[in-house]
Amino acid sequence: DIEVNNRKTKVFQDGAFRHTKWTKLRVGDVVKVEKDEFFPADLVLLSSSYDDAICYVETMNLDGETNLKLKQSLDVTSRLQDDDSFRGFGAVIRCEDPNANLYSFVGNIEIEEQQQQYPLSPQQLLLRDSKLRNTEYVYGVVVFTGHDTKVMQNATSAPSKRSKIEKKMDGAIYVLMSILVLISVIGSVVFGLATKHDLVDGRMKRWYLRPDNPDNIYDPNNPAVSAALHFFTAMILYGYFIPISLYVSIELVKLLQALFINSDIHMYHEESDTPAHARTSNLNEELGQVYTILTDKTGTLTCNSMEFIKCSIAGTAYGRGITEVEKAMAKRNGSPVISDFELGVEDFHQSEGRSAIKGFNFRDERVMDGNWVHQQHSGVIEMFFRLLAICHTCIPEVDEVTGKISYEAESPDEAAFVVAAHELGFTFYQRTQAGVYLHELDPSSGEQVDRFYKVLHVLEFSSARRRMSVIVKDEEGKTFIFSKGADSIMYERLSNSESTYSEATQKHINDYADAGLRTLVLAYRQLEEIEYAKFERKFTAAKNSVSADRDELIDEAADLIERDLILLGATAVEDKLQKGVPDCIDKLAKAGIKIWVLTGDKMETAINIGYACSLLRQGMKQITITLDTPDIIALEKGGDKGAINKASKVSVVQQINEGKKLINASGNESFALIIDGKSLTYALKDDTKAAFLDLAIACGSVICCRSSPKQKALVTRLVKTGTGKVTLAIGDGANDVGMIQEADIGVGISGAEGMQAVMASDVSIAQFRFLERLLLVHGHWCYSRISSMVCYFLYKNITFGVTLFLYESLSTFSGQTLYNDWSMSLYNVLFTSLPVIAMGVFDQDVSARFCLKYPMLYQEGPQNLLFRWSRLLGWMLHGVGSAVIIFFLTIASLKHQAFRKDGEVIDLSILGATAYTCVVWAVNMQMAITVNYFTLIQHICIWSGIFLWYLFLIIYGAITPSFSTTFFMVFSEALGGAPAYWVVTLLVAVAALIPYFTLAVVKTWFFPDYHNKIQWLQHAAKHADPEEELGVVLRQFSVRSTGVGVSARRDAKLVRTNSKVIHADSSSQSQATVELT
């Protein structure tokens, strides 16, 4: 904050621009921002170094998008080209109040000299934290500063997320705290009773406590006070029951685990130079407990790298490319024709000798290389390509050396359209404030000609309008409106008389949707001067308005002109599946994870993408919930909102109930639920969402189409709260931020839609396929390690604490400690801390290869097999048992025999040091038999704890008795030379571990967990191939399949084939029986 606030910018003061700190900026200041500088506040652009007052802005800090945005000032202020021009300049800006909407701005500017208002739009707004690019300088006036700026209005604190293991660990700590209070109360009561009878008839029972001293707290006359004071002594003494250092150790371990995730070369994407990044370490173990994955489609399952592949013009389909969805459909239908045709297309590519062009995968000799001029509807084709080259907001960049043109576009779709127009003979090469310049193919001469189109208005795309229009005037003075948008919107605006091939185009659009392509309808109309003038007046008045309904007024004006359009055709772009998506989904499905797809695409497109990535398969029954029924459509035409809402809700509830009946009536069949956005609105109502969730959970896969960002977040919340299991949301765009923050774990993909999803996520990866390794390997390892780590921590602290309690009970809870003070303080710091950290970082119950080979192992997490209360309590009881064995065996071994050569028996210091040594050996040896995967680091950590204990005894015992107290020379003079000490240490430590070792052997042999079975496989794999011997057992041990994925598709096909064979055999047998008869 200090660095940002003290940045400097040039502000117009006293007739010149002077450097001023950002903190001193005020609304109304005129500032000058130079190339590659950040904008210090929200500014209204007045002019720039370009003659037409345009500038290029990078908004990565706002929306994560790397493409440059074009901004342009009003004509009236574009003359302010130098510093001197601002002397005597004055204006008044009236605008909206501060708000968080990055993409809207309502206001107007009134120049003092002219006394006329000019409308302001987002095109003139330069937002704080965006950067000036490819422009030498701009002048702007401050409208919002500090916390009023839009970027600060959007700043929200990330939701706090804690893992389920952490929450259960808190419960375990509460249990231990309750035990601590209980034993402290028991000790205090016993001590109070003993103190009461310490002095009877002048005789002292516990004389060493000096009950005859009136200043002593051990006062037989006030046993209640003594008991109360002892309670606090006991709480401090038994405080070792509470593993406070566990929280510190876990934070350190999670940080190191996150570093390992970040460094995994198998999750590094070389093309984009992007590694995996665990943005928080709080949720590492949650990655191993995911029950449901909710994923976006575009840019997450697909590449979000659009390619223009097909189009329909004047009712004729063009484009010979084959999509991945079509390949999947061919496989689904068992058709060999596609593969042969695909081979022919590849030969065609090679024969043409064309290099691959990003965004363009269109091949059709009928329209390429200028051949479109020979087509029947050449005029329509010409207008179609012209619309592609004009109707957009792209920015061309021409390489001065090569002359090659590249485009900065707001979306991959727009870039694909402009590239397609360029490849087909209509090259957009320059944009100015006045309009756009094209190189066009003249059909009469066959030559490229330069044409200029004056851009009068741009009616921008929005999620509500779902269309974009540009009004232009050509060199002949004719005015045209070019429009493109969704078919459902555009078809309502077509002229019935002049759109003769609308049915053929609609059929092509449906075919393209079936092929998994994204479609847009293109249309145009020539405008009459009177009509345009009427629109101009209304549109300008709407833009000048500063009222709350400004957007509605603008939409009304646009709606007037976007009518009676002439259909040109439709475009189809392909968003290819990312590499490895089907295999990744297959592995996740085999791991028992349910996968939901939440997308804004059409139902047909989403379904076909589902087939391509094996979320859907042939033979899987589909339950479709939609409101596109004749009854609902008829009501919508009537316009009665109350009746529409009531009928829609009844329809959705009815479809949900029918789906549940269908599932209940079936056997082991797999179902897929597909629901559209309209239906989802009613399915998420409070009184219907429970039934909807029950239906969705019973299905193998769920696809929600036409979902808004808010619906995505609501569905995620429903799944998270309704199932009570861990949910993971994964997406790549700003529209996915809601569900990423709502889910237990949010995963962001650093893709073409910017970095907003990544910045809101808990973990970021470059490709969807890396989710497989992130969950099945790192997730399982982290869950297993943290679970074992917590259990071991409870064990070692209880072992230590119970030995203190047992000694107290033998000494009538006098408050005397068995161990030296410094040795107790260092127990969790030096002697037992490193092994548990090493286990949390390096332990592997199963290797990465076997984690991926047998994904059913992952179910240990969702079923929480390794962190159940029974396991926690078992480790606690093991700690109590070890403490009892260590304490009583140590006393029994040393109590009555001479310990030194002169015949002296042991004292408290020797007993304490010996028992402490047994505890250190026992807990470190317990770690040695608990660890699954030994490394040199783990060996060093385990045995260094024991070594440090002996080193402590020697060094600490050599210090003066005033400091070392009872441990003065205890090792060098008493313990080191006594054979009994070494024998007792060895035998007692081993005896303490025998119960655990025995139970572990019995459980592994007769009641193995998932990882125990795979450990046997892993061990057998070193000697021979164990697949035939143990593979079947493992598969039987697996969870029920979710019914999706490549494997499920293959298994279903095998079942169908076998059923056909059996049916054929039974038919032949019946025929033979008839003949014999």
TrEMBL record:
EC main group: translocase
Annotated signal sequence range: none
GO MF term (any one): ATP binding
Alphabetical keyword list: ATP-binding, Magnesium, Membrane, Metal-binding, Nucleotide-binding, Translocase, Transmembrane, Transmembrane helix
CC terms in the record's Gene Ontology section: plasma membrane
Domain P-type ATPase A: 5-71
Residues the record lists as binding Mg(2+): D296, T298, D732, D736
Catalysed reactions listed for this entry: ATP + H2O + phospholipidSide 1 = ADP + phosphate + phospholipidSide 2
Documented EC number(s): 7.6.2.1
Protein name: Phospholipid-transporting ATPase
Organism expressing this protein natively: Aegilops tauschii subsp. strangulata
